[in-house]
Amino acid sequence: MVFLDYGHNLWLAAIAFVVALVAGATGLTLTKDLSEKSLLQRKLAVALAAITMGGGIWSMHFVAMLGLQMPVLFYYDAAVTLVSALIAILLVTLALILLHFTRRTKATIVGAGALVGVGVLAMHYVGMAGMQLCQPIYTPFGVISAAVVAIGLCIMAFGVAYGSPSSRNIVIGTACFGVAVTSVHFVAMAGTNFVALSGTREIGLLISNEAMAIGVILSSFAIFGTFLWVGSTLLMPAGPEAAVPSRVLEPQATDQPEEVEAPLTWLPCERDGGKVRVPSRDIAFVRADGHYTQVYTMSGRYFCVWPITEAAKRLGPDGFIRVHRSYLVNPSKVSLFERGKDKGRCSFGAPGLPQVPVSRSHLKDALTAFS
Fold it and tell me: Which residues form the MHYT domain (predicted)?
């Protein structure tokens, strides 16, 4: 068996890495703060993120394959190539569903990262199986190395991006995702040899490198377009709710004689990578966000690592009440309570501060508190 000599175009390898980075940045940004959205918006965001990230994995692979330099002409089977793209999109979809429609824990984050790693690996080898007039020959070491890199780096990427939601962590997670997808390809290729074949064994139509280049260009334009749309959306003014003061919320000094007060109750929060203690008297409501919570004051929003059950234990003695399984409200901050037939809603009188729903099971407590 005579193995073919081959090499890679470094420019196309660099472009492939950029495609992977942009796909990761778009997908991770699209799925940020989804718990604030309606169910329909969450489904649409997850679907678009899955198509972007899965399509980015596929595009990165075939941009790099366009740079594969061999002494023989080769083609791709259209059916197998399409299946490879669908595999990547499907496994990324399953990973995002696990993250955004189940309780998010360390185990689910690891599971989601592993699913994406398997998707990257499966996409690569299925895509390689579509080569015609040229057959890849794999080594066990190459396959095992690619699997370890794929799963390990994807778990790291998702662990960083979803472990503690912040813009900085999304940037780091994007870098890990880009390195993971690109590394898998070239680690796998390093453990692959090629032999020339005299005939084809295609299932569908044959695709030349020129036709593949057109497909990859179109998919990359779609990914970059989505990235620009997401980026421009994030750069737009976010309204009063996003205008959070940078100071740490602590009791204000006064010239009045000191009074003996009960110890100040507060929640441990984070904002812009910094630790903040938010006093209970400044909190309007607390909203569950998976295994964590979002803490809303009259002027801004904070992230808290506590689950809502722990926040309720801390804030209960200060008069906070549960009005919904996902909401804890400070009655002193409620400016208007509106009752419907069997549920209600609370308003807070601050521009940009969302209303809080009152569920049927908690309506009685709300009526007592706001009467």
Answer: 8-195
The pLDDT tens digits for 139-169 are 999 999 999 999 999 999 888 888 766 778 8
Name the amino acid, one letter, at 334.
V
- Residue 323: exposed, middle, or buried by beta-carbon count in 10 A (0-12, 13-18, 19+)? buried
Domains, the chain, in order of start with CATH, read 7-235 (no CATH), 266-370 (2.40.50.1020)
| 201: nearest Cα among 73, 74, 77 | 77
The span from the CA of 180 to the CA of 154, in Å, is 6
Angle at 100 between CA 99 and CA 104, to 5 degrees: 50
Q: Indicate the average pLDDT of the chain.
A: 83
For the residues of 26-77, what is the DSSP string, one character each? HHHHHTTTGGGS-HHHHHHHHHHHHHHHHHHHHHHHHHHHHTEE-SS--EEE
First-to-last C-alpha distance (Å) of the chain: 86
pLDDT in tens, 331-357: 999 988 888 888 899 999 888 889 999
Helices (H), 236-316: 308-315
Residue 337 per-residue DSSP state = E
SS3 199: coil
